[in-house]
From TrEMBL:
Location of the region described as Disordered in the Swiss-Prot/TrEMBL record: 234-259
Protein name per UniProt: Lysophospholipid acyltransferase family protein
Source organism phylogeny: Bacteria, Bacillati, Actinomycetota, Actinomycetes, Pseudonocardiales
Recorded GO MF terms: acyltransferase activity
Biased composition range(s): Basic and acidic residues: 234-245
Organism: Saccharothrix mutabilis subsp. mutabilis
Signal sequence coordinates: none
InterPro entries for this protein: Plipid/glycerol_acylTrfase
Domain of life per record: Bacteria
Keyword set includes Acyltransferase: yes
Keywords: Acyltransferase, Transferase
Domain Phospholipid/glycerol acyltransferase: 39-158
Length: 259
């Protein structure tokens, strides 16, 4: 499956946007023999800007990831058709069509082409230390179902560019924290660190065998956390950057002292 031209254009624009917003620093790589083959990129989720940073980092490595996106984004005016034409995949967590979407994603993975990027946590971490939250086994089940390699991706720094903000944006008052924090971030130019780790070894696990999806998920999350530790070596406990809008109601079982 070739990368749609529209998505190539949009990733080029994204790279310029990320370059304007901060300094991109990419470490690690995707093995050459995995490029162009079925592949999952499993990343931690630290802020509203980190999908853009992930796209830019992947472009540095010569790949253009597709995302699993909520149906609301794919149905939005203007943006929705562009995202659909770019090859992104629909997932509606609250819908009765979740099973159908799951199988559609497995088939898309098996066809190869660009990797599919997933956030096992399902949301931006609300752990006080911004370590990955527990997450769910969806990505692990996709990997086991399709026998698809998983590359753990660890991110740090994107949380400094834009505030967590609000759950819903209904007017200027809700949008203001995003704009104000982004303008302030332009002056600081934070460093966006992205590390691509070695493929997670899931060779001894099987789809449908009791407990294996949970075991695969744990290995993926621990690999993401292991890659995150050196990225934030000078911030081992709490982030130095304080976001007053982000709740700290979450809890991470993966942080090094808890793992």
């Amino acid at each position: 499956m070739s990368t749609p031209l529209l998505w190539r254009v949009l990733t080029t624009i994204d790279r310029g946007f990320v370059g304007l917003s901060g300094r991109l620093q990419v470490t690690g790589d995707i093995p050459a023999d995995l490029k162009g083959r079925p592949l999952l990129l499993a990343s931690n989720h630290i802020g509203n800007l980190d999908p853009f940073v992930l796209i830019a980092a992947c472009r540095e490595l010569g790949v253009h990831p597709r995302f699993l996106l909520a149906g609301g984004l794919l149905d939005a005016p203007v943006m929705g058709p562009a995202l659909r034409a770019s090859g992104h995949l629909r997932v509606d967590r609250a819908s009765t069509s979740v099973g159908e979407a799951y199988h559609r994603t497995v088939e898309a993975l098996r066809r190869g082409g660009d990797p599919i990027a997933v956030y096992p946590e399902g949301k931006i971490s609300l752990d006080p230390g911004l370590w990955p939250e527990r997450g769910k086994t969806g990505a692990a089940r996709l990997a086991l179902s399709g026998r698809v390699p998983v590359i753990p991706v660890s991110q740090w720094g994107a949380h400094e560019a834009v505030y967590w903000g609000n759950t819903h944006v209904n007017g200027w008052a809700d949008f203001k924290p995003y704009l104000v924090s982004y303008v302030r971030g332009l002056r600081r130019r934070p460093t966006f660190k992205v590390h691509f780790g070695a493929p997670v070894d899931l060779s001894d696990l099987r789809d449908g065998r009791p407990g294996d999806a949970r075991r695969a998920h744990e290995r993926i999350m621990r690999a993401i956390t292991a890659g995150l530790v050196p990225l934030r070596a000078d911030e081992p406990d709490l982030p130095k950057f304080h976001d007053p809008t982000r709740p700290t109601t979450g809890s991470s079982p993966w942080r090094p002292e808890a793992a």
